[in-house]
Design a protein that fits this description.
It is built from ten helices and six strands; from the N terminus they run βααββαααβααββααα. The relative contact order is 0.06. A hairpin with a 2-residue loop joins strand 5 and strand 6. With 251 residues, it is mainly alpha-helical.
């Protein structure tokens, strides 16, 4: 088995010496064998270091990784644990994020974008700063906002719509998760944790939810738009009829 000093381990594992020490402090990486004042690491440490790096790249936090490694060390099948975690934290949208500079964003919005509005868009998660440009997680949502601006809706009103839409969809998402969780936990004992056999089943359930949630929300929103437009047109017809009646009586 190969042996490494800490700087050699960092180079082999694509990490930094500082990160290795952080992982050790967090209990993610076992301590090295000591030979005098020198720490000696092995291929076991290298494999663990590469696993930690891979999980971090997939979006797992230090806390998530600690829980996964603890489960693995206690005999759980890590592939099952990772399968469920991947299903839970994986993106629920098939959109591919794009990148835009501030000038490009202003051009999309007809030039009417202030620094304050850009900051608000960041707070709403519509764009994310990355160096001298912005990541756009949902290009479709960005283009929808641009179209609203083109037809005459102010940028502040577009951001107001986005903020209310986010609050509404957060409630819808919480409702979906709550209902499914209630069904899963209904027959379980308090403190239940899924077994190795149940982990793949839960991962499959989450994956099956993805198209169902999207289809349900889209269909429900379409029906709501039909009702809202019908009501709006009805109100306008009533106003016009009333106005015409008043005009004829006064004439």
């Amino acid at each position: 088995m190969a042996e490494y000093r800490i700087d050699e381990l960092a180079q082999a594992g694509g990490a930094t010496v500082r990160n290795i020490r952080v992982y050790q402090d967090r209990g993610l990486l076992p301590p090295p064998r000591r030979e005098g004042r020198v720490g000696i690491y092995t291929d076991v440490h290298l494999a663990r270091l590469r696993l930690i790096g891979s999980l971090l790249e997939r979006g797992f936090t230090m806390a998530h990784i600690s829980e996964l490694l603890t489960a693995w060390e206690h005999g759980r099948d890590l592939s099952h644990v990772l399968g469920l975690e991947s299903a839970l934290v994986g993106p629920w949208s098939q959109e591919v994020p794009t990148y835009r500079t501030a000038d490009e964003l202003r051009a999309m919005m007809g030039g009417a974008v202030t620094a304050e509005q850009l900051d608000r868009a960041v707070r709403l998660g519509l764009i994310e700063p990355e160096g001298d440009r912005y990541t756009v997680p949902s290009p479709r949502l960005l283009h929808a906002g641009a179209e609203l601006v083109r037809i005459g809706v102010s940028m502040d009103d577009v951001l107001d719509i986005a903020e209310r839409l986010r609050a509404d969809t957060d409630r819808i998402a919480a409702r979906f998760v709550g209902v499914v969780a209630e069904q899963i936990l209904a027959s379980k004992e308090p403190g239940w944790l899924p077994s190795d056999r149940e982990l793949p089943e839960l991962a499959e359930l989450v994956e099956r939810l993805r198209p169902l949630v999207g289809a349900s929300v889209q269909a429900s929103l379409a029906a709501s738009m039909d009702r809202a437009v019908t009501r709006w047109l009805g109100d306008r017809v009533t106003e016009l009829t009333t106005h015409e009646s008043d005009r004829r009586r006064s004439g």
